[in-house]
Every structure is written in C-alpha cells, then in structure tokens.
C-alpha cells in the first residue's frame, strides 16, 4: 500500500475529508441554528447551550442562564467533535460515489441524524424541544450535504482510491 494512502486514511476513511467535512458541515449547521433561534423565541446562544448541557448537565441549558464562555466552548467543542465523527461515518459510505450521489446521500444522512437526535434521543433531553422547528431540519440537511461534498472533494484531491470493480452498475 502506498505510503500516502496510509497517512490519510483511518479504517479506510480519508481523515482529512472527515475532519474538514465535519468542520464545514458543523459550522454551517451552527450558523443556521443560531440564525433561526430568534425566529422561534430563543437566544442565538441556545443551540450551543443545549449541546453543552449534554455533558455539563441540564443547568447549562437554562434559557435565563448567564452568558458563560465555558458553556459555549463546551457546546462548540462537543458539536464539532460529533460533526467530525458523523462525517467519518458518512465518509465510509460515500467514498466511492460520484459527488452528486454523495451529496444526495449526505442530504438523506442529515435527515436521518435529525430523526435520531431529536426524535429518538431527544425525549431524554427535554430542552431540545425548543429546537424542533423547520430550521432544524434544514440545518441537518445542509450539514449532511456540505459534509459529503467537502469529504468527496478532499478525497478526490488527496489520494483517491479506485472503487471496487463490479459487474453490476452502482446507482447509489
């Protein structure tokens, strides 16, 4: 195996693509969530406070909580960590697909993440109920598409590996 491939891959996934895709997708998600938060009557900082509350406890999610750099930093770190982790999972699936198919798969992946995060795990964390609005669905779709697009672009630019040869056409 060429040395360049072993340096940019972890379990077959391009780690540069996962890292950059996760950061870009995660920051776009955060931008959309912060922009739409006042439209539903919550603070622009609420998305980060709610995420931080997953590790700091429910008090971090209080709407009337005083502004805290520690809470926002914890929320940002956890959000970006999860975004990169989710992009690694996505990258394992899309790495052999053309960019259009991968981007569409990212959109579907974003919807799946929305369902898992807000409808499966969400009831355990009631403060996330304030984020159940159309902007959240849109933000997850944008996250998935951006993460997939960036991942594939980095994959193509660094060290693309050829897809496995198959007799059957690949549609998705």
Description:
- The chain is mainly alpha-helical and 172 residues long.
- It has one domain.
- Helix content is 65%, strand content 2%.
- A two-stranded antiparallel ribbon has the order 1-2.
- Strand 1 and strand 2 form a beta hairpin.
- It is elongated.
Topology:
Blueprint: H1 3-8, E1 9-10, E2 13-14, H2 15-36, H3 46-56, H4 69-94, H5 99-120, H6 134-157
Antiparallel strand pairs: 1-2
Helix pairs in contact: 2-4, 2-6, 3-4, 4-6, 5-6
Provide the descriptors you would attach to this structure in a database record.
2 strands, two-stranded antiparallel sheet, mainly alpha, 172 residues, disordered N terminus, 65% helix
Assembly type of the chains comes to: single chain
Strand order of the largest sheet: 1-2
Average pLDDT score: 86
Distance between the ends: 27 Å
Please write the string of helix (H) and strand (E) elements.
Answer: HEEHHHHH
Number of helices: 6
Structural class: mainly alpha
Are there runs of 5+ residues with pLDDT below 50, and where?
Answer: 1-6
DSSP strand count: 2
Please bin the fraction of helical residues.
55-70%
Morphology call = elongated
Percentage of β-strand residues: under 5%
The largest β sheet comes out as: 2 strands, antiparallel
Return Rg in Å.
Answer: 18 Å
Domain count, please report it.
1
Short structural summary:
This protein has 172 residues and is mainly α.
């Amino acid at each position: 195996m060429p040395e360049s491939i072993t340096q940019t891959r972890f379990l077959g996934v391009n780690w540069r693509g996962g890292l950059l895709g996760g950061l870009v997708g995660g920051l776009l998600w955060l931008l959309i969530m912060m922009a739409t938060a006042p439209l539903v009557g919550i603070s622009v900082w609420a998305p980060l406070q709610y995420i931080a509350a997953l590790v700091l406890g429910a008090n971090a999610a209080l709407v009337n909580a005083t502004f805290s750099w520690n809470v926002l930093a914890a929320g940002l770190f956890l959000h970006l960590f999860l975004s990169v982790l989710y992009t690694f999972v996505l990258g394992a699936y899309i790495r052999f697909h053309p960019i259009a198919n991968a981007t569409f798969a990212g959109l579907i992946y974003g919807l799946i993440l929305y369902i898992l995060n807000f409808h499966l795990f969400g009831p355990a964390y009631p403060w996330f109920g304030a984020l159940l609005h159309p902007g959240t669905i849109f933000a997850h779709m944008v996250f998935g598409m951006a993460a997939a697009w960036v991942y594939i672009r980095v994959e193509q630019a660094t060290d693309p590996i050829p897809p496995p040869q198959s007799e059957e056409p690949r549609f998705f």
